[in-house]
Structure of Glycosyltransferase:
Amino acid sequence: MNINGDQTGPLTVAVDLYPLVAGVSGGIVPWIHGVLREMVRLYPDDRIVLFHRPGRPPLEIVAPNVDHIALDNHPVAYYAEMTRHCQSMRPDALLRSYPQEEGPDFPFPRQVFVIPDIQHEFFPDFFQTAVLAARRRAFATALSRGGAIATMTDHSRETIVSNSWTMTDDVFLMPAALPEELQETPSKTDLPSEAAAFDRFFYMPANLWPHKNHRRLFEAFKLALPHLPPKTGLVLTGSPEGLQESIKGFEDLPIVHLGFLPHKQVAALFANATALVYFSLFEGFGMPLLEAFHHGTPVLCSNTTSLPEVGGDAVLSCDPTDVSAMANLMLRITTEEGLRENLSEKAKLRVAAYDWAKPAHSLRAALLRVSQNSVEFKPRRPLVSIVMPTRNHGHFIRASIDSMLSQSYDNVELLVMDGASTDDTVEILKSYGDRIRWISEPDRGQADAINKGMKLLNGDILAYLNSDDILLPDALETVVGFFNDHPECDMMYGNADYIDAEGAVIGKYNTASYSFERLMQDCCVCQPAAFWRRRIAQRIGPFDASLQTAMDYEYWLRMATSGAIIYHMDSKLAQSRLHEDAKTLAMRGVIYGEVFAICEKHGGYVSLSYYNGLWAYRLYEAWSWGPKLRRFLPHIHRIPAVFGFLAQVRDIRRDKRRSQYVARTAFNEIDRKLPWAGSLIRRAWFRSAALRRRFQ
């Protein structure tokens, strides 16, 4: 194979631009634009089809071999239309401009995903919980299923390769260069009047996102200002959203925000700035550095992530959390003789090292590689690790252990964690010899036993099986097959039956297809039929040992809110035993207390179904007159349940952060069930800055 991507025939490439919004999406737009434009020029026989939302596309390439096709604005409808186009045009490969939860029906091994960085894994606190979860799900799909990943720098490549969700071994470099439209020479009249009013100014071109570190920049500027020459200012450009909050406390400083500007005015700001100040906490590349280098403008930036790689010796850098160091660099560039000229000379060499031809060839080669990939994922045989917590279950544990040992899948390890049983449990464990591993010692309860056991096991797929539950024959073979078919899946669960003390089936567990909203209604996951990957356990940590009854439900919700991809499989995998000494039957009051706290913590609200259940328990089960009341007034519990639920709604409205979270959950439910309503909400969201401020 030619490493430059040459082949005997041309390629047909579909490009998904749905995630990109000009201006809003930041530097990824000019990056992808520059690479594609050069690839089109270098490979004129290829056919490139750009799919985008209605209206003007986020990037336009005018060439005989390029088509632009506008699709629906709603992601589900958009990707359904894109699927139909792909079935008709039969592209060799698909370029995804950024990970999305939705996507077209096109083989993942033949998709190239563009990922500038995985900043959200390093600074998760910069994102709202629901936004972070959605981002993680989208990235997990790209990293685990994509045929190849394009990224910008060695730093980004290393972080992507080392990520636990990355399963492709094709992560390649596709660096940026200076966009053609930013190489114009500005005139004196192009400099905005607000900037021209300063004798000198520092320049920061970036949206007001948390990782761009504007607040610390303002602090550093305030610290340096008394020692800087008179009439020195700080000029900002980019989206003004968030400015009021970011500038709070610094309103008296000579700082101006000019919003979005034409390219020539941006070029004029670079050309006339005393220095570019770019103390970002995390960058996949740092396009403004190349713009500054092109104009011979000194660069003051962070010494972290990709910026040292891009800037080399042509920048002055420091720790972006050290305000004093940032202020000192501002002083140096304005007072140290010869420093500006020295950096300008080095900048010319740095910018010359970046051109669009190299990344264009790299992308074309990757598209060729994935076009030849098999559409099937290579099956794996991962180690499955199962912990069995037990205490005084001698009358049930043998059946549970035997259900494990009789599994057809053989790459499995079982560890029984006995909480110092006083019945015949230990004798039963000894009877298995070296066929099982077991530990008998006091513990602090079921969750503590599970946590201790998990630390001693090594599998990629994890689960726990209570010593009164049963795993059905071939269940593990089925589970491993499911994970092989769905490499993006973090947790899966199947169906299960209820059995009595004698092992007779007495009912069916109420499992259901997964959605977060459905899981918030009640625990639709049957614990013995649930399995998860080690990577998600490493992200969210151990079970909550402070919970007595609902630690599994809390674990599922914690997974979900962390961004886990959870699937339901419509196959029967296990049996859950109901008997008089079963903990969940004996502690109904405790269960509701724990469930309410768990739902408020992870979902921001408690479902009406739980209020109904709580008041049914209080009126019909916990009260001695309850059975008679149920006969005469079987629905009376709904009245206090509704009042309790409405009181909760009032409390949510008073809490901005909680209301934002619940609003997003509600939107997801509306968007899934009523796409037309979801489209209206999306349109209003993009058009209304006030709405975004209220719910961001």
